[in-house]
Design a protein that fits this description.
3% of the residues lie in helices and 60% in strands. By secondary structure, it is mostly beta strands.
């Protein structure tokens, strides 16, 4: 008996000592046209074993053999293919064709597998953007706000800050053409619909710094949107308490056309503000996109947008409590007057593409943008400042605000560019002429009678603020860029190098600028789940009218003078980052980290009030911005994409050689969460949750220099959640009778905005008591509110 046990032990040990049999898979991955798919993913299903194809689509993967083995081949933009094997051995040649994805309306749910080797990331569109809770009605911008390095402190606005920059430092492109927003908007509740229509979006590219030379003259970020080209009839209708939209598209192999009309009214949401009254915001726009393949080599695309944003407001009263539990103050105001704002914008663009062969493409573009804006109000307020704990009145006063502001702007652009694929090189170039014309007539003043705050002089109560501006200007901008991306494989791994230069000239001050930019990405041979990136570049931001407005005060009246000597602001970027892909709990994840430093020169300082940016009108500061951005992306819940980001920031500036001051956007930390889930065992229930926790921004008394902005607002904390229920699912065409045969999906949803009902501060109103003590009364943002919506897909 002992001998048998001994023999069994020896046999078991011998079996363990024999190494596992290896198998090697080799082959090429191509698309439907036979073209190689570079950097495609090859992975053993269920195991942390995988590789990526080289620039010619070739791959080699060696792994342990087993009774049953499954290989997965995938790439963003293509369908995933799997191949199974029984007891594979030796070397197996396996060529794979990945068909392109057939994108269905608003259902782009792609696991994030594309390798980001440059400074611009491709952002996956979570399926059903319209099912996400959005107080601003943006959709796309809500996704951008949740990215690493991006922060926002106002749910009513679609604007965002990137790595210490302000709203004006972010460029937005749609189909390769830069788009603009109104200039006079001062509050989030005045802001209408974002130009980007989420129903029409096909792909999203976003860069928080170190971006390529092909992108224009902004210092902070680039959002590059490409609209879809439908290949069949499709439609979507949505409606809710905050507005609605109607989208319809049609197309075939030669022509595609899509158009959409949107309506937004945040009246229901504004009812949660402290200031009560009659809110009448009405925002509407119409957008159309036509793509026509004239011949096999010639293609024409046209995009147009018309928007009318009207905001009317008649305030009645306001009650705001602030302070601590031991020292509660109450600010109560009774109003009389009105506000009426109107922002009308027109945008049109056309692009003619000529491709003599598959390796060359030439593009001629022309666009025009016009905005007519009116901001008018007369509001009188009588207020009381009370101490609730002692039940006494600390101060009384009144104020009157008046404005008659009118502005018109025209921007016209003509550009010629080319793309050339030369072996492993992707060469791109472009030249552009841009004409800008501005005309404004602005008159605004504020009269404030607060005990100890504004004392009559010589029997006259002078305004605390009095602005008069009648100015106009026109200028031309010329720019050219040249860049090349070279990809190759070597002993280190797969390498991508991008280098380019941008030249620009501005006729306003005869300024000529030279902007070199470069980046390098590496997928190392020793670990193909790792991607390393470095980027550096010089970025200039040419003033866009608001920055040109310098002010001169004489006799108590402040007038605007356009600064002829104003220069472009400069930002030098240094960025180092990495991505690491891994599997946890059997699900894919990716961790991204980027460290950056930005050296800022020729800065034009500014103050921020709500979303209005008021510039000094001169280059009198220098500064820096440095920080660390981190993001964890993956399937926190199987089958759904979620992410969490953490950003750390320090940005300061020195004005006129003075002390270092925190910049108005110095939010030291920002934590964002985007989480999606569904009920197990059913595709009918879906949930999406968005959370933000961001450090408060610096602030100070109004109409003062930045040197007096020594206070810090409380942190911005907000959670929005949305629940959606699928009433009808007819994607497989099972319903063939009645009205249901025309429907694809019907969703019913409920949103809870500001779920925790946190009082977030947007700005402050300053008053004083009889002892000449100044108080900053917080202007709170919206409170908790429910929204009901319905989405119908045809």
């Amino acid at each position: 008996m002992k001998l048998k046990l001994y023999i069994l032990f020896l046999l078991s040990f011998a079996a363990l000592a024999v190494p596992a049999q290896k198998v090697t898979f080799k082959g090429r991955i191509v698309n439907e046209n036979g073209s190689p798919i570079e950097i495609a993913n090859v992975k053993v299903v269920g195991e942390p074993v995988g590789t990526v194809a080289d620039l010619n689509g070739n791959y080699t993967l060696t792994c342990d053999s087993r009774d049953s083995l499954v290989l997965s081949f995938s790439m963003v933009g293509y369908q995933t293919r799997k191949r199974g094997f029984k007891n594979p051995a030796d070397t197996i040649i396996l060529n794979v064709m990945l068909p392109s994805l057939d994108f269905s309306l608003q259902e782009v749910e792609i696991v994030e597998k594309e390798r980001q080797m440059g400074s611009t990331q491709k952002i996956d569109m979570p399926g059903k953007l319209r099912l996400n809770p959005s107080a601003s009605g943006g959709g796309i911008e809500d996704i951008i706000k949740s990215q690493a390095g991006v922060s926002s402190h106002n749910e009513l606005s679609s604007q965002y800050n990137v790595r210490g920059g302000n709203f004006d430092e972010n460029s937005v492109y749609v189909n390769g053409i830069e788009v603009y927003r109104p200039l006079l908007i001062r509050a989030g509740q005045q802001e209408g619909l974002s130009f980007v229509n989420p129903d029409m979006v096909g792909s999203i590219a976003f860069s928080t710094g170190g971006f390529e030379a092909k992108y224009g003259d902004k210092m902070s970020s680039v959002l590059d949107i490409t609209y879809r080209k439908p290949r069949e009839s499709e439609a979507v209708a949505s409606a809710g308490l905050l507005g609605g939209s109607l989208y319809a598209g049609w197309g075939n192999s030669r022509v595609s056309f899509s158009n959409s009309v949107r309506y937004k009214s945040n009246r229901y949401l504004l009812g949660t503000l402290d200031t009560k009254g009659e809110y009448e915001p009405e925002f509407i726009d119409y957008q159309a996109f036509l793509d026509w393949r004239i011949t096999g080599k010639l293609n024409l695309s046209i995009i147009g947008n018309i928007a009318r944003n009207e905001y009317k407001f008649t305030p009645t009263d306001r009650t705001t409590s602030f302070g601590t539990l031991e020292n509660v103050k109450e600010f109560k105001v009774y109003f009389d007057g009105w506000e009426n704002d109107l922002f009308n914008t027109l945008f049109g663009a056309a692009a003619l593409n000529y491709a003599p062969n598959e390796y060359n493409l030439f593009t001629l573009q022309a666009s025009a943008f016009n905005t007519n804006e009116e901001e008018t109000y007369d509001i009188i307020g009588e207020y009381w400042l009370d101490d609730i704990n002692s039940d006494r009145t600390m101060g009384v006063g009144g104020y009157m605000e008046h404005a008659r502001n009118y502005l018109e702007a025209d921007v016209r652009t003509v550009a010629l560019g080319g793309k050339h694929y030369l072996g492993s090189n992707d060469l791109r170039w472009g030249v552009e002429w841009k004409s800008e014309e501005f005309s404004d007539n602005m008159r605004e003043w504020e009269l404030r009678d607060s005990a100890g705050y504004n004392i009559p002089s010589a029997g006259v109560l002078r305004p605390v603020y009095n602005l008069l501006s009648r100015s106009s200007c026109s200028s031309d901008k010329l720019s050219a860029h040249l860049q090349n991306t070279y990809k190759f494989s070597c002993s280190l791994g797969v390498v991508s190098v991008n280098a380019g230069v941008r030249l620009s000239y501005w006729s306003w001050n005869d300024e000529l600028l030279f902007s070199p930019r470069a980046s390098i990405g590496l997928i190392p041979e020793f670990n193909k789940d790792l991607t390393l990136r470095l980027a550096a570049g010089v970025y200039y931001q040419t003033p866009f009218y608001k920055e040109m407005r310098d002010t001169v005060t004489a006799g108590g009246i402040t007038s605007v003078v356009l600064n002829k000597g104003i220069k472009s602001q400069r930002s030098i970027h240094f960025v180092a980052g990495c991505d690491y892909r891994f599997t946890m709990l059997g699900r894919p994840f990716k961790f991204t980290a980027e460290a950056y430093y930005k050296k800022l020169d020729n800065l034009i300082p500014y103050n921020v009030d709500n979303v209005r940016i008021v510039y000094y009108g001169e280059n009198c500061a220098k500064g820096y911005a440095t920080g660390l951005d981190m993001k964890l992306f993956g399937e926190f819940v199987p089958g759904t994409d979620s992410w969490i980001t953490l950003s750390l920031l320090d940005t300061k500036e020195r004005i006129n050689g003075g002390d270092w001051l925190p910049r108005p956007t110095n939010s030291k930390f920002n934590l964002s969460l985007y989480f999606t889930d569904f009920f197990p065992g059913t595709d009918r229930w879906k949930m999406s949750l968005q959370g933000a926790y961001a450090d408060g921004l610096p602030f100070g008394p109004p109409h003062t220099g930045r040197e007096k902005h020594s206070f810090n607002a409380p942190a911005y904390k907000r959670v929005d959640i949305g629940m959606s229920y699928r009433l009808l699912n007819n994607e497989d065409g099972t319903h063939r009778t009645g009205l249901q045969r025309y429907l694809r999906n019907v969703w019913l949803g409920v949103d809870a905005f500001n779920l925790l009902d946190i009082n977030n501060v947007n700005s402050y109103y300053w008053v004083s008591d009889v002892d000449n003590h100044n108080y900053a009364v917080p202007n709170y943002l919206t409170g908790r509110q429910l929204n009901v919506r319905v989405l119908v897909e045809l």
